[in-house]
Amino acid sequence: MFTGFTEGALDFLSGIRANNNKEWFEAHKQEYTEKVYEPLKELGEAIYAPYEGTELMYKVGRIYRDTNFPPYLHYRDVMWIYVRYPAWYWNKTPTLYFELSPEGAEYGFRIAKPDAAVMERFRAQISEDPEAFLGLMKQLTDSGLTIGGEEYKRTKKCEIPELAEYYRKKGLSVYERCEDAEILFSEKLTERIREVFRQTEPLNEMFHEIVEIEELAKAIEKENLSQPQKEEVKAPDVEFMW
Fold first, then answer.
1. Which value, to the nearest 10 degrees, does the dihedral of the CA atoms of residues 25, 30, 35, 38 take?
2. Strands (E), the chain
3. SS3 97
């Protein structure tokens, strides 16, 4: 049962950030297991509990970084849990996430690097019913959540001024940061994450539907391209004399 992280968890993550090497990690491996990984697993089970029996899955990250991708470090200094629909590319799909770093915790909704076509569909959808979308975002920001996400360098044309902020987004996140020891180091963290997940679920479902539609569209296009094309009847090349 998750009862909260400890100062030792943040100390370990600070340590691995400053000493990203096998020697330091091996000397502090027990700290990682007891103060970071085991509590993280317990928290993962607790925040996933409301979604059991649904199509959503969850995963708890390990500290070993994939060395096939930059920055080619051996270990993570930010640990994570995500709750999402099954997908091949996790950063292209909407995710309810939790992250623990030396600075504290962050949790909420994120779609980090969606395909450009997904964001194009997103812009079209919110333009069809801007009041509903803006009402949802107001509820989220009024409750203290922060809107983030990478932005395009070039501004996208938007005919509804209130949506301009979202037209600039290459990806979207809505989250809360927690540095409050009273929450971070207690079981209160579970309930707070669950509440933020509940608030941001409509965004997760919206983007899940958009991603599914885009995947279906791509599959249909691929199937059409693979179909043999009927040859058109061409006029004879030989000139006839009548």
1. 110
2. 57-60, 79-84, 95-101, 104-111, 146-148, 172-178
3. strand
Q: Is 173 exposed, middle or buried (0-12, 13-18, 19+ CB in 10 A)?
A: buried
Phi-psi region of 94 (alpha: psi -120 to 50; beta: other; left: phi over 0): beta
Length of the chain: 242
Residue recorded with tokens 């569209």: 217
* Assessment of whether the complete model's pTM goes beyond 0.85: yes
Q: Are strands 95-101 and 104-111 parallel, antiparallel or unpaired?
A: antiparallel
Whose CA is closest to 118, among 94, 152, 102?
94
Residue with tokens 């203290």, as numbered in its chain = 144
- pLDDT tens, residue order, the chain (242 aa): 999 999 999 999 999 999 999 999 999 999 999 999 999 999 999 999 999 999 999 999 999 876 666 666 789 999 999 999 998 777 789 999 999 999 999 999 999 999 999 999 999 999 999 999 999 999 999 999 999 999 999 989 999 999 999 999 999 999 999 999 999 999 999 999 999 999 999 999 999 999 999 988 877 877 666 666 566 555 555 544 43
Q: Which two tokens stand for residue 166?
A: 């979202």
Six-digit token string for 32: 């990682």
* Partners of 79 in beta bridges: 100
